[in-house]
Amino acid sequence: MSHNTFGHLFRFTTWGESHGPALGCVVDGCPPNIEVSEAEVQSFLDKRKPGQSKFTTQRREADAVRILSGTMEQEDGRILTTGTPISMIIENTDQRSKDYGDIKSRYRPGHADFSYDAKYGIRDYRGGGRSSARETAARVAAGAIARKVIAGVTVRGALVQMGPHKVDRARWDWDEVNNNPFFCPDPVAAEEWATYLDGVRKAGSSVGAVIEVVAEGVLAGWGAPVYGKLDQDIASAFMSINAVKGVEIGNGFEAATLSGEDNADEIRMRNDGPRFLSNKAGGVLGGISSGQPVVARFAVKPTSSILTPRKSITAEGEEVDVMTKGRHDPCVGIRAVPIGEAMMAIVLADHMLRHRGQNGWIDNVS
Length: 366
Fold this sequence. Notes:
By secondary structure, this protein is α+β, with helices and mostly antiparallel strands. It has helices at about 40-50, 115-120, 135-150, 185-200, 230-240, 260-265, 335-360, and strands at about 5, 10-15, 20-30, 65, 70-75, 80, 85-90, 155-160, 165, 210-215, 245-250, 265-270, 275, 285, 290, 295-300, 310-315, 320.
């Protein structure tokens, strides 16, 4: 299997399967002399790990990370990157492969089972193997390193829609995001979602979601105008996340409903320099950052692992009904929030280094 690496100058490769002994990543291209620790990486993994509420899978994984290479402790106790590949490992400790025995030769509708078999002629049916969202733990670890590279940039994510239920942006409060199990910035919506999702969970069903990720402090000039667009790479990063079926930057699809007058972000001169009067473009113009907050959203489908039987076939071509047992998220979008943050940070770190490599003499390079 190829294509397990993402990025250019800042790049990472993930490895491991859902029900294997461990998973992890190798981060290549991280500059030297950046202070980092396992505790810092762990703090982001703790946001993604399963089993933290009744609204996520009850698989119990500590997601404890170990940094195996690429860092060195100094005499003053600080741990600095050395500029060499950073290898990190996360052990799997709560696999229940027996839960998947019934679907060993059955293709789960909506999952990658059929397409994997069609491509490789073999698949890991235990939790989906490489197609499992378990792989994303390694992305979050890589994202923690990326955040250190782009020090000064703040990357935050929030769940803004669960099923048909959206947040009220008039009540948006970033401080609320960590006060509820949904990463929701609207405290009223969070309470409503708890009742709604509890019903979905008890019915053995699932629901989709929309996640918004905002990066503040991105300087103007990151990205390239043709095949290295900043928003192009953000879209690619988000689409690579399991279950993501759509991405938009700034106003996104809403822009199709606007006139040119309404959609354009007007500019005025202030004492401290140019200032935009709106941010419908989501902080990216012509593939290059404008200095405004970079705003992107992605839509996550409902998990296909549900208790309601669905029509499918076996590997031998027999028509069957499939009901997926095991421990699954009724809304996978919840734990996608820290994953989206990680992928945004990784793209920004890559583009910052690319920009510095080509335009290092320009003042706006941090």
